[in-house]
Specification:
single chain, alpha+beta, YefM-like fold, three-stranded mixed beta sheet, 4 helices, 3 strands
Length: 86
């Protein structure tokens, strides 16, 4: 994440802003005219949250469905991989 956030917005919800950042993410704090005033850098590691894991699983399931629909071989993917490993 590397965004511009108004100083007023950061003051209103600093905890919320920090919760959105992962280790090394930056946010530029700007005045009302958009002039950069400061750079906020997150130093806190964020543990993987359940929502991110759920989203990832959903994406993998969608990908599996697309691959299955496009699979044109008489052999299964498992059989193909087994042959490649020989």
């Amino acid at each position: 994440m590397s965004d511009f956030v108004s100083l007023e917005s950061a003051e209103r919800d600093l905890k919320g802003l920090l919760a959105q950042l992962s280790l090394g993410d930056t946010v530029t704090l700007a005045d009302n005219d958009g002039k950069p005033l400061a750079l906020l850098v997150s130093l806190q590691e964020v543990a993987a949250n359940e929502q991110a894991i759920t989203d990832w699983r959903g994406q993998m399931e969608d990908l599996a469905k697309k691959v299955s629909a496009a699979w044109n071989s008489e052999k299964s993917a498992v059989e193909t991989i087994a042959e490649m490993r020989r």
